[in-house]
Amino acid sequence: MSAPLAGIRIIEVGVMLAGPYATMLLADLGAEVIKVEPPGGEISRQVSDSYFASLNRNKKSVVIDLRSDEGKARLGELVADSHALLVNMKPSAIKKLGLTYESLRRYNEKLVCVAMTGFGLEGGDDPAFDYVIQAATGVAAMTGNPDDPPTLPGYSSADNSTGLTAALGLLAQIVSGRGGQVDVCLRDVMLSQLNYRAAAYLNDGVVPQRYPYGAHSYYVPAQLFETADGYLALFITHDGFWKAFSAEAGIEGFPTMAERAARRDEVLAVVSAALATDTAAGWEERLRPLGIPVAAVRTLPEALERTPEVIVRAGDFRLVGSPIKVTGYQPEYRPAPQVGEHDDVVRAHSS
């Protein structure tokens, strides 16, 4: 089966994580992704070889100095024969380098230009790194135990989420058959992902609050619990789950969701006492066959050891493969390119 995005050509002027992650997902699905790098290479090459490999497999690399007239002309040649251009930089840099639809439409009316920024293409140049956006959008304030300082997830949730969103916007505009500008910013993506939390405040005046062990604001019990050995994530979202769990755990009462929510502290006390009688692994083994949403808290190494099927090899590196599974299609994982590795190939293709 041919790749889902075979024949689609995307130019990436991406740095670090958000932009390169978006285009890597598209490259895994068969798009030809040409990574435009400045002389000396994209800055994330300086982080580590594995960092760069994890975000840039399946791409081609060309070196173009976009500040020069020659570089601008060469970019024009590339986009004339491409479906999309994706860039993540400060708005002023995007405009100065001519990486917008208005600047490039003379080469290709159907070109889709995706700008990934912190606050929007017209939102200014304030620094917008992942952790800054998490702080600015309320994510940090609602994360952690109530009496502890605000905290951040252990991975780049804003950058990764924006990469996924940008890839969706890019494909949507290609499918429309029209060229144009797509504007995706980290701030709006994270606010969008706070969907029901934002709706509760906007419509009902409910200000998000933190509960111990990351407890859910609606469902009870739905949080982390300490066990005889390790921590357990238990997520009881309806009365059927509760009936099966309480029977296995030897707990009586609290049969409805409404009652469990109203008597949160009582429920958590009896559930905590019950779960303390066995290990996290033991509870997982007992509750999984009952269809109850549960998982022992594991480290990343432990999680990867349990899921070898997600690990792929791209050149010298072992990486987590594409999360998108398409029936009949298996991605070919090629290593991340060397700086300018495809200069001659791409130049010949565009001439």
Automatic annotation (TrEMBL):
<dbReference type="Pfam" id="PF02515">
    <property type="entry name" value="CoA_transf_3"/>
</dbReference>
<feature type="region of interest" description="Disordered">
    <location>
        <begin position="331"/>
        <end position="351"/>
    </location>
</feature>
<dbReference type="GO" id="GO:0016740">
    <property type="term" value="F:transferase activity"/>
</dbReference>
<dbReference type="InterPro" id="IPR023606">
    <property type="entry name" value="CoA-Trfase_III_dom_1_sf"/>
</dbReference>
<dbReference type="InterPro" id="IPR050509">
    <property type="entry name" value="CoA-transferase_III"/>
</dbReference>
<feature type="compositionally biased region" description="Basic and acidic residues">
    <location>
        <begin position="340"/>
        <end position="351"/>
    </location>
</feature>
<dbReference type="InterPro" id="IPR044855">
    <property type="entry name" value="CoA-Trfase_III_dom3_sf"/>
</dbReference>
<protein>
    <submittedName>
        <fullName>CoA transferase</fullName>
    </submittedName>
</protein>
<keyword id="KW-0808">Transferase</keyword>
<dbReference type="InterPro" id="IPR003673">
    <property type="entry name" value="CoA-Trfase_fam_III"/>
</dbReference>
